[in-house]
Amino acid sequence: MKVFITKPIAERGMGVFKKAHIDVTVWKQRKALSQDELIQKLQKYEAAICIGKYRLDENFFSKCSHLKAVSLLSVGYDNVDIAAAKKWNVPVGNTPGVLSKATADTAFLLMQMVARKAIYSYRMILENQWVERNPMDNLGIDLDGKTLGIFGLGRIGFEMAKMCQRTFGMNIIYYNRSRNEEAENELGAKKVSFDKLLQTSDVISIHSALTSETKNLFDKTAFEKMKPTSIFVNTSRGGVVDEKALIAALKKKTIWGAGLDVTNPEPMKSNNPLLKMETVAVLPHIGSATVETRSEMSRLAAENVTAVLVGKTMPNQIK
């Protein structure tokens, strides 16, 4: 049994393969394979862990229908055509749950960085602009008692809501297709319409999947409904946001600030105007980037593949 992995993973994941006596080949070059190159490589393997921006579509699955399993090293799977995977009978897994806290920590960090203009203030030091100030210069905003609006209250959004309530006493509202009774019972969270989320939130934190329904959902119209004092935080997918509309909203002070761990495209170009804005914080997609979290993600991805290869059901198969 042979498995191909498109990027190096943590030793914890490699240990799963070693214990099961499965041969593993890891693509260690920084330059990613093209889809055609990946398809060609996989002809010699029984399974794969695909990490990165690979488009796993009809073309991929039709030419790799021999694969017994594919796993991602992520929760999101907007790069995978699940219908095509089912058509060609290739089970695909992801790594849910283990990265919820780490990603929520990043959203919580971004919210505070934006509220206190942390990136801008740090840049002022680097540019030798730390000078004597008047008491009303370069002020941030308080978060105590404000309203947090969660768009997509799943595991990550729930962790974010808990931290915001426990640290800042924030009121929690959310927009979901279905109710989150755990959040309502534990946090007093209230389910609201999308418009009410936009209109009444002091901070909006995005934790949804990228789908045809959410693509560019946060556009000019959405930003115009938000408070001029509001903070927009996105740690989900860059495609949920119309970036040009976000830039315009910040320039016109339609909203107060934005914290982004995801952008569209990624990597973001260094001349992007968002990087120079006073009330913006941008991070290079580090949501799950801790030693502990990536180790657990590697374990889950390896177990997804190994389970199928030894005749068991994939534990985290995307349905």
Task: Describe the model.
This protein is of the alpha/beta class and about 325 residues long. The chain folds into two domains: about 1-95 and about 290-310, NAD(P)-binding Rossmann-like Domain (Rossmann fold, 3-Layer(aba) Sandwich); about 100-280, NAD(P)-binding Rossmann-like Domain (Rossmann fold, 3-Layer(aba) Sandwich). Helix content is about 35%, strand content about 15%. It is built from twelve helices and twelve strands. A seven-stranded parallel beta sheet has the order 8-7-6-9-10-11-12, with helices on both faces. Strands 2-1-3-4-5 form a five-stranded parallel beta sheet, covered by helices on one side. α4 (about 80-85) links the parallel β4 and β5. α1 packs parallel to α12. It is globular, with a radius of gyration of 21 Å. The relative contact order is 0.16. The mean pLDDT is about 95.
Labels describing this entry:
2 domains, 319 residues, Rossmann fold, 7-stranded parallel sheet, alpha/beta, 12 strands, 12 helices, 5-stranded parallel sheet
